[in-house]
Design goal:
Strand content: 25-35%
Radius of gyration: 11 Å
Largest sheet: 5 strands, antiparallel
Strand order of the largest sheet: 2-3-1-4-5
Distance between the termini: 27 Å
Number of strands: 5
Structural class: alpha+beta
Shape: globular
Helix content: 25-40%
Number of helices: 2
């Protein structure tokens, strides 16, 4: 089973500039969507252990200048920092 989770961002709108930043941060294997009334990166295509994938995605987002509010897995939410 491939882990799936969301990086919920501080931004609320799916603007082109945000989509470009998400792509440039290396999330071209993920989907930009809305989750909890905020923009979110849905990560669903990465193989590995959930905890490590979340850590890697958070580091990738930070390096790419994305403002992560929190991580969501189904109905659970975890703080990003």
């Amino acid at each position: 089973m491939t882990p799936e989770f969301y990086l919920v961002l501080k931004e609320r709108e799916l603007e082109d500039s945000l989509a470009n930043r998400v792509f440039e941060a290396g999330f071209d294997d993920s989907e930009l969507t809305i989750r909890s009334n905020r923009a979110a990166v849905w990560i669903c295509d990465r193989e590995g252990e959930l905890t490590e994938l979340v850590r890697e995605a958070l580091a990738q987002a930070k390096q790419g200048g994305l403002n992560v509010l929190h991580v969501e897995i189904e109905n659970e939410a975890f703080a990003a920092s």
